Amino acid sequence: MADAPPVLRARPLSPHILQWRWHITMATSILHRVTGVGLYVGLLILAGWALALASGPDIYATYAGLLGSLVGRIILFGVTVCLFFHIANGLRHLVWDFGKGLAPHTANITAWIALAFAGVAAVGVWVLAAVMGAL
Amino acid sequence: MSEFRAAQFRTALGRARGLGSAKHGVGHFIGQRVSAVALLFLTLWGVAAALSVAAGGYDGARTWLASPVNAALLGLLILAGLYHAQLGMRTIIEDYIERPITKAALLILNAFVGWGVAALALVSILKVTFGAGS
Q1: Per residue in B87-116, pLDDT tens?
Q2: Least buried of A62, A64, A126, B80, by fewest C-beta within 10 Å?
Q3: How far apart (Å, rounded) are the C-alpha atoms in residues B132 and B64?
Q4: Range of the domain at B86
């Protein structure tokens, strides 16, 4: 029996990603990576802020001016959205690590909650910033 | 072909040792999650801090960072963030970059960015914190 030739059969392949209908849990999965990269950039901006603060008032004014420009604000708002999505979706991952919340129906609902939370929290923080005179 | 020849001279155990678990893969998994829990609190503190610091200008920011608590928490936020980001970016590079030389170069760059930015940020924070008292 030991020298029976191995039988090679065409085994089923998983369909290419383009064959799948997009669904919400797919979107939140890849968005977790995308927002993670966004937060990497946000971290560099934060570290740059500390460096500018240590480099004197002129450099700090220039740096604060860049952050306060239209492009700067758009980037910072994007980082805020990334942060709140990554927090909400990260909590989903931590719950999944305990084996909970993996049923499709539950996962779909929490995916929508994470997306909604990201939008609401980011807008809320920026409204708060405007009210506090931080903009 | 070199892989084939190497395979012939290696025992099954040797191959398993070379290709199998390095016994510390779980460290990445745990480190990612522990830093995630820390960052949950640190980033929310960071957002609140940003709101209070943004309006104060240069002098306000220096005064804010002169507080040891603020300096320590900002340092922890940046360190835990870089650690978490480096682990995540490592996974992304390993997933999407196939060519070994490109992959190695990007992984080294990822480590350099992480350690380099950590050093710059920490020295900057300490400079402001210790400079403020004098």
Answers
A1: 999 999 999 999 999 999 999 999 999 999
A2: A62
A3: 10
A4: 25-133
pLDDT at B16 over 80: no
- A134, B54: Cβ pair inside 8 Å? yes
Residue B14 within any structural domain of the chain: no
As a three-state string, the secondary structure of A76-118 is HHHHHHHHHHHHHHHHHHHHHCCCCCCCHHHHHHHHHHHHHHH
Q: Is residue B119 part of a domain?
A: yes
Say if B13 falls within a structural domain.
no
Share of residues in chain B with pLDDT > 70 (%): 83
Distance CA B132, CA B134 (A): 6
B98 domain-assigned: yes
Q: What is the value of ipTM here, to two decimals?
A: 0.87
CATH class of A24-131: mainly alpha
Contact residues, chain A to chain B, C-beta under 8 Å: 33, 36-37, 39-40, 43-44, 46-47, 50-51, 53-55, 57, 60-61, 64, 80, 83, 87, 90-91, 93-94, 97, 125, 128-129, 132-135
